[in-house]
TrEMBL record:
Coiled coil: none annotated. One of its GO terms (molecular function) is methyltransferase activity. Keywords: Methyltransferase, Transferase. It comes from the Bacteria. PANTHER family: S-ADENOSYL-L-METHIONINE-DEPENDENT METHYLTRANSFERASE YKTD-RELATED, S-ADENOSYL-L-METHIONINE-DEPENDENT METHYLTRANSFERASES SUPERFAMILY PROTEIN. It comes from Mycobacterium dioxanotrophicus. GO terms for biological process: methylation. Transmembrane segments: none annotated. The keyword Transferase applies. This is GlcNAc transferase.
Amino acid sequence: MRTVITDLTPVEATALLTLYARALDNRAPRPILADSLADSIVDDIDYDFAGLGVQTSVVCQTALRAKMLDDRVRSFASAHPDAVVVDLGAGLDSGLYRVAPPQTVDWYHVDLPGISALRETLLPPDPRSHIVVASLAAADWAATIPADRPTMLVADGLFAFLAEPVIAGIFRGITERFPSGEIAFNDYGGIGWFSRAALKFYPQKMFKDVGSQWGYLGFKDAHHPQTWNPRVRLVEEASLAHADEVDLFPGWLRIATRLMGMTKATARKGRILRYRF
């Protein structure tokens, strides 16, 4: 029997959009992420996914940023086989199953109650998997996560929904809680007036219920998070536009993306940032 979605908040429900984007990528002739589990989960849910109106560009960018984050988590887990991975705003992401880290790695999925309950229902059990029901705005969200091992924190599509004080609080809190590690996340650079106007007048269907996609308008300089916590330092800024996998995009989107990568200002509109502490 398929699972019926009934009680997710609008913010929690945005996890369905990225889930569906990963599923659509898996159905492509040449997938970028090839997340077959996401495809299977979509089949298990009784929901009007087609009504979300997920565009081809969203499918490609969602799949590519997930793959880039996977690569960085996989590298960290390889270097630290006793690591803890913390997925902030995990939603229904199947990163654990894609990365397939050593059995000695523990993976913590942090999210709100509704989507966490759905995750427990739909994702296959794994001894490495641990669900943490918490709001990242709470000071004690990491209280149940081990604090004595190298820690890799990852956030995919999360920070755009959070206010700057919450994001800054996360950055300050991780070095107080965890002894050493990294944090990696996708970022859109500074969100200018044109992008804000486009979101206001032509929002993605689901974001109409959220109110606004952008809780935080971002920053141009990738060193900016170091102003929140000087104990973290930037170690990587990687533009999606420069990734080899862009060659798998449809022709028109591939050309547009490569053109975006030709200037620093446009290349930072889709990037992975990684910091070490």
